[in-house]
Amino acid sequence: MSRTADIVSxxxxxxxxxxxxxxxxxxxxxxxxxxxxLKRNRLAMISLxxxxxxxxxxxxxxxxxxxxxxxxxLLKGAQGPSGEHWFGTDTLGRDLMVxxxxxxxxxxxxxxVATFVALMIGVVYGATAGYLGGKVDAxxxxxxxxxxxxxxxxxxxxxxxAFGRSLWLIFVAIGAVEWxxxxxxxxxxxxxxxxxxxxxAAVSLGYSHTRIILRHLIPNVLGPxxxxxxxxxxxxxxxxxxxxxxxxxVQPPNASWGVLINEGQQNMEIFPWLLMFPAFFFALTLFSLxxxxxxxxxxxxxxxxxx
Amino acid sequence: xxxxxxxxxGQGLLVLLAIxxxxxxxxxxxxxxxxxxxxxxxPEILAQIEAFYGYxxxxxxxxxxxxxxxxxxxxGPSAVYxxxxxxxxxxxxxxxxxxxxxxxxxxxxxxxIPAGILAAVKRNTWLDYLPMSASMVxxxxxxxxxxxxxxxxxxxxxxxxxxxGWFGPDYMVLPAATLGLFYAAYFAxxxxxxxxEMLNQDFIRTARxxxxxxxxxxxxxxxxxxxxxxxxxxxxxxxxxxxxSFVVETIFQIPGLGQWFVKGALNRDDFLILGLxxxxxxxxxxxxxxxxxxxxxxxxxxxxxx
Amino acid sequence: MPxxxxxxxxxxxxxxxxxxxxxxxxxxxxxxxxxxxxxxxxIGNGSExxxxxxxxxxGVPENAIxxxxxxxxVTYHPTDDTLAEPAMAQxxxxxxxxxxxxxxxxxxxxxxxxxxxxxxxxxxxxxxxLSPALGAEYAESLYVIENAMAFHQxxxxxxxxxxxxALDDHTLEVRLKGSTPHFLLMLKHYSFYPVxxxxxxxxxxxxxRQSGWSTLENYVGNGAFRLKEWATNDFLEVERNPDYWDxxxxxxxxxxxxxxxxxxxEATAFQGGRLHITNEVPADRIPSLQQSNSDALMIExxxxxxxxxxxxxxxxxxxxxxRRALAxxxxxxxxxxxxxxxxxxxxxxxxxxxxxxxxxxKAVEYDPERARELLAQAGYPGGEGFPEAEILINxxxxxxxxAEAIQAMWREKLGVEIxxxxxxxxxxxxxxxxxxxxxxxxxxxxxxxxxxxFLEIFTSGNGNNDTGWSNAQYDQLISQAQRATTEEARFxxxxxxxxxxxxxxxxxxxxxxxRVYMKDPRVENWNPKLLDNRSYKYISIAGS
Lengths: 307, 306, 544
Prior knowledge:
The structure holds 3 protein chains of 3 kinds.
Chain A: H1 5-26, H2 29-40, H3 42-64, H4 96-132, H5 134-148, H6 152-163, H7 167-194, H8 197-204, H9 209-217, H10 222-245, H11 257-266, H12 272-300
Helix pairs in contact in A: 1-7, 1-10, 2-12, 3-4, 3-12, 4-5, 4-7, 4-9, 4-10, 4-11, 4-12, 5-7, 6-7, 7-10, 8-9, 10-11, 10-12, 11-12
Chain B: H1 2-29, H2 43-52, H3 59-71, H4 86-121, H5 126-140, H6 143-157, H7 173-199, H8 202-209, H9 214-226, H10 228-242, H11 246-251, H12 257-267, H13 270-298
Helix pairs in contact in B: 1-13, 4-5, 4-7, 4-10, 4-13, 5-7, 6-7, 7-9, 7-10, 10-13, 12-13
Chain C: H1 3-22, H2 31-38, E1 40-44, H3 60-69, E2 74-76, E3 84-86, E4 89-94, E5 100-105, H4 119-130, H5 148-152, E6 164-168, E7 171-175, H6 183-187, H7 197-202, E8 225-231, E9 235-240, E10 254-258, H8 263-271, H9 286-292, E11 297-310, H10 320-328, H11 332-340, E12 345-346, H12 368-377, E13 389-394, H13 397-414, E14 418-423, H14 425-433, E15 439-445, H15 452-455, H16 472-483, H17 487-504, E16 507-518, E17 523-524, E18 540-541
Parallel strand pairs in C: 1-10, 13-14, 13-15
Antiparallel strand pairs in C: 2-3, 4-5, 5-7, 6-7, 8-9, 9-10, 11-15, 11-16, 12-16, 17-18
Helix pairs in contact in C: 10-12, 16-17
């Protein structure tokens, strides 16, 4: 498996500079325009709706279910879907529907928190490098290059082995891997903005670097950052599934979608529902996030406003 | 141009050096040793083994020895697999991963690029959504689900293809499809994005207004520029794909490099880890350099240092 | 880099494209059928062998391969692991108290390089494995020999003081440090196997861990088969050895071992006709295979115990009542029936059943009622105030499911909330040996068919104890058993020792292992074995 977010960055990086400039000129109307364009993209809208529905299902669902995800009944292990258990039960007799919903909570949480970690590091790092420029930029970007060339399988496994104890460390481990693309994109955007009058004005007013970066630069590269964040969430969820395949995922008896799918995959011939339900929700979430991300990109790209 | 290449090459070497140091540190800090076994070993015996592999020296000295050896192209022995040097292991697994990787990449390009072009041309219609959805399958289902499903259908139910193993061309079809589908999604997305950008350029609009046929616009004017993002991605993709995929190699029992990345890390086989890291990083550096050159060739407006 | 290498790379590539274009669309001929017709057995062998040097390996997959390549003084019986078959030794005598053994070596045994196998080869080999500088992990299994321990620990440097002597080319005398009637069973283990001294010396010498003698090119053995091909992570093939002393008995033309680590890949490989024998079967598939493929599904007793170690140095597990309460709440019947599903026997003691002459302990039961009482006596009525604790497991689907089930039993029956902590293998080993755990999942497989291999590890300070438990009376009984001159006296002492251990419960026995695997019905003479060791020379396959 490859580091997924760097894939997206190839276009993002080129996109971000012109976008940021136009955004400054047009002000908030850009967001209105983008929303209008997004609404016209049926697939993206369906995706948005689906995503919200899945999040609600996972967050609210367990509260409504009569079952508890840890409650076992070994005598009712691996039973197919029924009126009693809509998604059937797993091999230890736990209700698969609640397990799927709770797994979704974990997977979505991992996806979003890790992305947030990556976003925070990447945006601050990229903006600083781009804004300061010169030698500092060169050194900072060489560091990014170096980390880029690190085989991430080894990196993540060693991190997980060393710190695998808590869910939060998984977030940090994954976030630490995914921030690189963010940094590159933000840097490219900031370099494009730096020469703009409003930044020069801010500099001449004697604002501190921190203030200029936080208040003037970062808000103006938000568009591409949102796009890549939307696309990073599914990439992270996939990465978490990969870790589950290695057995390095969340600690039992908790289970993420990755854990459930891995378990289901092993039994797909005999107990197909164990794979079908978690995989369906997982795939649906990834589909919707990917299409939403693509849709957002189209919508936020002013050049695509052809009609 | 030569100066640019030389400078990039120099930077690449520095990156490799930094990665070597970083990886060494990371492995040294990870708990567990390559020599721990389920049954207890007497401490004196353990000490003998550690001394044999140089683990009794202080870390800094070990780092220096291994680095100077590595600079001479000698990555040392595997601490876990007797009689096998890291170089042997890599040379044995590399052709397998190169073969599988190349075929998978071709699969990815054959699926991804046409899907991306079609989607861009027919934007926001079902001819956009459908090929994009199809090409997304590979990144919406983990490879460890897609692989076994393909095996079940083609290997067990219809018995058309071998279920696993690596003994000839027919053994390559299912793993290449599994891995290729994963990368296809990214190529489709990048191609679609690149094509859309080109289709919205002013000169294309002018050409359209002049009544140039749509096919000429797409194939003659847009394709070259539209493929740039996909080509940019080709570098990291190639490096990633030929350094192997653990999941696909595990599911299909393929003796490629990907297994070694995971085994090396799980065994704490540090020379092996270092060797693989250098290999991977070297591939990335070289691929990125190649991509830069190609990009410059495709688009002379780009400056040499971007 | 040689250009031949790149030629190979390029030609594989070209070949691949050609093949893809031509890949036919008719059902394929199965490898298992082709191989059966050629008399080649295809075995799923778990993982890639780390070495084929009998003095350096420690693992099961390595053992499986070495059994075909090298023979010791005696070898495995085709059906019964409590017996030994003549191999390099055609006969043997021992004195009355089983301390001096004399082996008469056959004179028609040869190494694959043509050298005869002589008694001094064994002396050299045992000196090699006992040399401290080699750092052999399993050297301790030779400690039964007089002065072997002193030599191995550097107290004496003269190997002639160690109790092994070549009286002539075909007579080997072994003096043991105590009476050991089961010495023959120990000799079957690969740590006692010979290596060819000339070859070992040629490729690096006696104490070189990276000696090149055990590579594909240089390997010299004396077994029924010889090494033919070894492609890392791909397969390893042995072929019939024409110079083997008992070549007429050998039926197979070869054996191909596949290092398939993933159980599901292996199951699929069997289904898809790539294997005759698998290493394992995923637990969840067992019930459905019993219905659909009962000819091929093999479930056989296997001399080993699956258990949880308890860290007796930590509160509240230092209280035997707590340990007993935990042990009493594991519903082993339900667990083996619904979770492990492979016909395992619920453990009633630590030493598994199946050892002739040894009385199995019945001390471990399921009685949640009493467990609650004990827990209340220990100060945790209804689980109240029970400190935070965790079951340590290493990464594996099966361990995880078993731990989840036991966790739920403890929660429901005792009101005790114990977590699960999954650690990667190497870290898990570290945690276990440094007593950095509360409860830890473990397993122990017998080296030879004798209760001693289960019980001696829990003596005070034993490297494999790993529970912090120590009991003077237990230690005394084990050493009494080691010195006993009759097997009855030995078993009696061991029985008593086990009773003490099962009373204090530094370990919670869970189940006794079975070997569950798939076997092509065409494979013949592959018999159930308590230790799963095979003499491949007796095995055959009906080509169809």
